[in-house]
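// run 5 | inverse folding | seed 20
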């Protein structure tokens, strides 16, 4: 964590850095922080003379949790095509575009269409893939026909850096 001692012309800019929990975050001899375990710790920066201090809270999470929290912003999902009414059914005919905004390859291992987010058993259609999408690449997945019965969702099964997870997107928001 970067810090500045102000004013810029202070004669002593030395700072002592301590952790409230060395089992979570350790302050190394070069004043860099090293995460050790999942949890939270307060990092205190105190001027050498002891007159001023500041505290920052550091949360250490697992890499899997980080991926789950951040992957939705790393993947763009858009649709092109049209929704048409045919014999009382609403049908989508078009393509899904998946864009990788991360720094690693993403493998799309499956695309699923569901009537509602909570109805795992009512998949309208599923399409299994193993396509790798490189950084900033967009891949278009086929032409789909499915019935918009309730409030449809698209579920993407992906693999990011060897970790499998699913992302839910409301179809009408794409």
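// decoded
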């Amino acid at each position: 964590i970067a810090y500045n001692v102000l004013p810029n012309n202070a004669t002593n800019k030395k700072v002592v850095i301590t952790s409230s929990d060395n089992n979570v975050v350790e302050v190394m001899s070069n004043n860099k922080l090293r995460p050790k375990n999942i949890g939270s710790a307060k990092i205190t920066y105190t001027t050498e003379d002891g007159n001023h201090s500041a505290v920052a809270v550091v949360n250490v999470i697992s890499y899997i949790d980080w991926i789950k929290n951040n992957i939705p912003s790393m993947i763009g999902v858009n649709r092109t095509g049209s929704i048409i009414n045919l014999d009382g059914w609403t049908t989508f005919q078009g393509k899904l575009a998946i864009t990788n905004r991360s720094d690693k390859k993403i493998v799309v291992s499956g695309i699923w269409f569901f009537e509602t987010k909570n109805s795992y058993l009512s998949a309208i259609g599923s399409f299994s893939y193993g396509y790798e999408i490189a950084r900033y690449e967009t891949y278009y997945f086929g032409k789909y026909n499915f019935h918009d019965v309730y409030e449809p969702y698209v579920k993407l099964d992906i693999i990011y850096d060897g970790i499998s997870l699913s992302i839910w997107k409301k179809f009408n928001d794409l």
